[in-house]
Amino acid sequence: MIVSEALVRGLDVCPRSEHQLSWRSRSPSGEAPAPGAERLREACRQAPGLIGTALAEFDFRRATSAVWGIVDEANRYVNHSRPWELAKAERAGDEHAGHQLDATLVALVRACRAIAERLSPFLPDAAARVARQCTPLDGRLLSPSPVFRRIATRTDACGKPAQAMGSLEPEPLGDPAQGVTP
């Protein structure tokens, strides 16, 4: 999931101690003014209705597409807002960049929480891992760790990909003609 990696990257370069997010950029209404995050907020807002309608019609593919719609918008937002560059500018003394960084990280954490909540019926373990990393404890996020395990690729003697380790394809059950069982 690119958005969580970018969020972690933004938090890693962020000068907040122990990955503590400062919420100083909140407006009086409590909504962080994240410029450029309108489409992301809209995807988060629309997802529950889209998922509910799709599930009522037993269309799981369309339901999960609504979740991935949030992920896609969050990825676009990360690429547009570039939180790692905002953190660098803040460290260089740009106070405005610091406020933008806060708003950007607030928008991304909210999106990740929405992803976790909407993903839970489909991938409950993954959703719990996402939620755990995006839920502050005592005002701090947990130290970042991968949400999904990486799938490494083995290479043959020529350096070409040979077989994926941790492949998602099922293991062969054996040859039923020879009575081999797993």
UniProtKB/TrEMBL annotation:
It comes from Streptosporangium oxazolinicum. It comes from the Bacteria. Keywords: ATP-binding, Ligase, Nucleotide-binding. Residues 28-133 form the Methionyl-tRNA synthetase anticodon-binding domain. SUPFAM superfamilies: Anticodon-binding domain of a subclass of class I aminoacyl-tRNA synthetases. This is Methionyl-tRNA synthetase anticodon-binding domain-containing protein. The keyword Nucleotide-binding applies. Signal peptide: none annotated. Residues 159-182 are annotated as: Disordered. InterPro entries: Anticodon_Met, tRNAsynth_Ia_anticodon-bd. The keyword Kinase does not apply. Coiled coil: none annotated.
